[in-house]
Design brief:
Structural class: alpha/beta
CATH superfamily: Thiamin diphosphate (ThDP)-binding fold, Pyr/PP domains
Number of domains: 1
CATH class: Alpha Beta
Order of helices and strands: HHEHHHEHEEEEHEHHH
CATH architecture: 3-Layer(aba) Sandwich
Number of helices: 10
Distance between the termini: 50 Å
Number of strands: 7
């Protein structure tokens, strides 16, 4: 498993990663507050604990050039991709100002502008969509001779998805055509309430890449610097036409499967073990110990994030509801 040792980031990159991860964490904490206060409805799946993966991968890619495909745990992917917090929060409140115009809600965030290809309620749904984006990039270059077509796609999904047919079918096609795609497995050890080791014949998912002759790699998904390095290697290969990578990130979700989940299946000892490996605290320690930035700078970022999240909630609460006369809008092409 790849784990970072000495940070290979400069001051600005270190602060960028810390800011992105902190925004994800504080945004999700506010979502939980709004949900339990009865301001947010439906299923809401939070990303707490997994921030190093979203930041490590997406912050290594080219925003509004590369493409991203998420799951039902998609809020933080959207934020990392550059979708404004106000638009994400508005979508969670079902408002017209949301990134999906209030039609998608928590599990169906979409933004054409930010190359976010959507969140999907059913596992595995997004992988073929991501494959299509990667195929488009390769087709433009090879068949249409657009030399500047070098976009890479990142498909995020969990360990439970890796037992589904779409996963294997898309890995086969991606390797066959050497498509520029990263298959990013967010292995948080639990598929809803099913422990990972009980659900698969080989719990080391990255090894499944070898069946297709694909490059596979396992990385510490609680270490954003390790994820970033692994992602950069995979992105470089993909952009150079050398094909896909299956990147398994070992992580843990700090909350239940959704906010409706009492989270009674996981042992307290397990939760406590992973809580000690909080990815944001780990990054802070690495940055300060390496004298890349100061504790005061990080506290200032946290204050800025708190204001941003507070303003996002205020904006969403005051935003208009979708007009009933537009009920069928966005369903059919104009």
């Amino acid at each position: 498993m790849t784990t970072s040792t000495q940070p290979k980031v400069n001051h600005s990159t270190g602060l960028k990663l810390f800011r992105d991860m902190t925004l994800g964490r504080r945004f999700e904490d506010k979502c939980a507050e709004m949900y339990y206060r009865g301001k947010m409805f439906g299923f809401v799946h939070l990303y707490n604990g997994q921030e190093a993966i979203s930041s490590g991968v997406i912050c290594s890619m080219k925003l509004k050039h590369d493409w991203f495909c998420s799951t039902y745990r998609d809020h933080v992917h959207a934020l990392s991709a550059g979708v404004p917090a106000k638009e994400v929060m508005s979508e969670l409140f079902g408002k017209e100002t949301g990134c999906s115009k209030g039609r998608g809600g928590s599990m169906h965030l979409f933004s054409k502008e930010h190359h976010l290809l959507g969140g999907y309620a059913f596992i595995g749904e997004g992988i073929p969509v991501a494959l299509g984006a990667a195929f488009t990039s390769r087709y433009k270059k090879d068949a249409l001779h657009q030399d500047d077509s070098d976009s890479v796609t990142a498909a995020f999904f969990g360990d439970g998805t890796c037992n589904n047919g779409q996963f294997f079918e898309c890995l086969n096609m991606a390797q066959l055509w050497k498509l520029p795609i990263l298959f990013v497995v967010e292995n948080n050890k639990w598929a809803i309430g099913m422990a990972h080791d009980r659900a698969t014949s080989d719990p080391e998912i990255w090894r499944k890449a070898s069946a297709f002759g694909m490059h596979g790699e396992e990385v510490d998904g609680m270490d954003v610097l390790a994820v970033r390095e692994a992602a950069q290697r995979a992105i470089e290969r993909a952009r150079a036409g050398k094909g896909p990578t299956l990147l398994e990130c070992l992580t843990y979700r700090f909350r239940g499967h959704s906010l409706a989940d009492p989270d009674e299946l996981r042992k307290e000892e397990e939760k406590e073990f992973w809580a000690k490996r909080d990815p944001i605290k780990m990054l802070e320690t690495n940055l300060i110990d390496a004298e890349i930035c100061s504790k005061e700078e990080l506290r200032e970022i946290e204050k800025e994030i708190d204001i941003e999240v507070k303003e996002a909630v205020e904006f969403a609460l005051s935003a208009p509801e979708p007009d009933q006369k537009d009920l069928t809008k966005y369903i059919w092409a104009d």
